[in-house]
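PROTOCOL LOG
Step 1. Enter all chains and additional molecules of the complex.
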Amino acid sequence: MARNAARAADGIDEARLWQRLMAMARFGARADGGVDRQALSAEDVAARRQLIAWAEARGFACAVDPIGNLFVRRAGREPDLAPVLTGSHLDSQPTGGKFDGVYGVLAGFEVLEALEDLGLSTRRSVEAVAWTNEEGSRFQPGAMGSAAFAGRMDLAALRVGADRAGVRLGDALDATLAATPTAARRALGFPVAAYVESHIEQGPLLEADGKVIGAVTGIQGSRWFAVEVTGEAAHAGTTPLKIRKDALKAATAMVSALESLMADPSDVVRFTVGRFEVAPNSPNTVPDRVFFTIDFRHPDAAVLQRLGDQVEATCRAAARGCAVRVTQTFDAPPVDFAPAIVGLVSAAAARLGLPHRDIFSGAFHDAKFLAEVAPTGMVFVPCARGISHNPAESATASDLAAGARVLAEVVAELAAQ
Amino acid sequence: MARNAARAADGIDEARLWQRLMAMARFGARADGGVDRQALSAEDVAARRQLIAWAEARGFACAVDPIGNLFVRRAGREPDLAPVLTGSHLDSQPTGGKFDGVYGVLAGFEVLEALEDLGLSTRRSVEAVAWTNEEGSRFQPGAMGSAAFAGRMDLAALRVGADRAGVRLGDALDATLAATPTAARRALGFPVAAYVESHIEQGPLLEADGKVIGAVTGIQGSRWFAVEVTGEAAHAGTTPLKIRKDALKAATAMVSALESLMADPSDVVRFTVGRFEVAPNSPNTVPDRVFFTIDFRHPDAAVLQRLGDQVEATCRAAARGCAVRVTQTFDAPPVDFAPAIVGLVSAAAARLGLPHRDIFSGAFHDAKFLAEVAPTGMVFVPCARGISHNPAESATASDLAAGARVLAEVVAELAAQ
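Step 2. Run joint prediction.
Step 3. Record the structure below.
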């Protein structure tokens, strides 16, 4: 344990962090109390300009890379060493809340300020980062800033994508960069010593367990499938059931069979059928087409493979004479975070007297891509009833500050290494 | 058996009937070979004017009542007696075929022509009728012409209904009546000696059985329900399954439980879930709302009551913590046709050497309402694979003519009584 690591948490200012969160929530504020601050929008630009203004007021250098990732740097004693990064994203869902993403950016910035307020120097530089477009609401795919940084998405390919209004990402990005002229330009991707992201849990486990800190051990893997069931439309009054090819009854039988396949007494499997669409969708016509999606997640790659590989056969076995097409639309293996960083998070929480537990992330985060290029970890704090991607998203100033204190200690320790 | 009853079938002209069907199919012809001739549309007006032109060419009197039901009359020897009516409807589904409804009208008209061609007088007058708006596609509800005729729907209430473009039924009706100025005006509802409707089966039973004629014994009863399931939206990646209130999984469990409830080895029960709508319908969000419909039909009122009364409890038992609201939206008891007319249909088919069977109607027809005011029956002929309400609707000239021959004999017999 480096000498200053035990003290960095002392510089976290709960009121300042809360005020900044509320200030950011004004950019894209919705009438229902939520936030609509989609990537590279005017609201996103305003949030970026605010962060830069706060940074410049403290004398921190700002830089942007070609995908718009925004870095605020507090230089270390050995500025040529790879920095420690901490952050998340400023963009929100169209029906988003005040904490998803922006909390991680402002907690990282709060760490910089805490170190500055305490006069604590670090060996490595520490940078707070706002990754571009984590949500993927306006431009797809999500997490493109961190993915491009990690070399997993191609900038030129991303730039030609367009939003629903036909605006190209490249044009929105150029306008965003032009609106933050004081930030230096920086190349895409550079060596990173470690990455730590703080985030609201977006799930109910910490709250249910009475914990304030989650030491995130990794991000569970996901396999998504699309299922198309094709039967035969028929008159509901005249057609005997035995000769029907009823796409809806076949699809509901598939969902039941998949529930049996995915049954898990330990309640770790996540199995969701979120979209389910019926045609012709008329009360007195036997449906001839159903489309539904499967979102299947698990922390264990072997379970993901074993159960996921049975999805198609399970659907076929319940097809009842209908045609079935099963397509895997997404396949992301589980990510394991660096055990050393998970340990630092637990240890810091313990030192600070904060109830904590290990936890797997059920949701995706920018940390997924950073984990491919640097030792990576995350710090979760509770959010009320696990509700997120929702204007009702709620977290307490106390828990948010607790997460920032843990983050400060972990970052300071990593910056000393 | 009246002397001329055995001969009326001889006047049916298969080619003429087919040509008229094809001529009518031009009014509202779709590029895919189907017909879109919705009630009180320009296409419906054109079909009505065509029927009147054919009638006037033969010297038959035409009349319309205030709901637009169109009658073509061949007077009997005792014109003050209640007439025998035969017909169906000229309107179609927006994606309709060439035979549903219009066949019954033109078969009825063919009977008038057959009697005329043969010089056969009848004691009672015989009238071919086209009931207004059986389909209920443009204006709801369906079968409003026959229902208003039978005194089961109120004309003034129907007139204020509007289509999706905001056109009031009263205005469309007035325009339709104005476009057929040569038809005499007639009051709504009058004594009817008997009603016989010929129609394609719209189901597969006659074809599967190798029968040409169905002697329709009645129309099965129907109970329709709407089910609203309300759970709680949640993040698909983070929310443990045990604490979810998943409206989709609850709804699919309800459909499965209803299938068990409705299981019928004799395959007489008709149980259909035709509409099924999910919100927010996003792949990675646990659905919080499902709306689905139940269309349940059976010829036996006791079975309709026993199983229908268990629908709500069956849904509640599968609710899995979600809220459930079950609403009965339609309740039509079974209709039994007059045994004497069913017997006349069977006897005529037997005399004509046509393979025939008794059959229950799975679909609604105008005969449902006429059965409340007069002895009523129906004659079914096969349609290919039971497909109807579909541009692919198909029937053979030979089967259609066979149905008209049976109809001619039955109508002539009834008109002799």
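Step 4. Note key features.
Chain A has a mean pLDDT of 96.
The CA atoms of residues 8 and 238 of chain A lie 76 Å apart.
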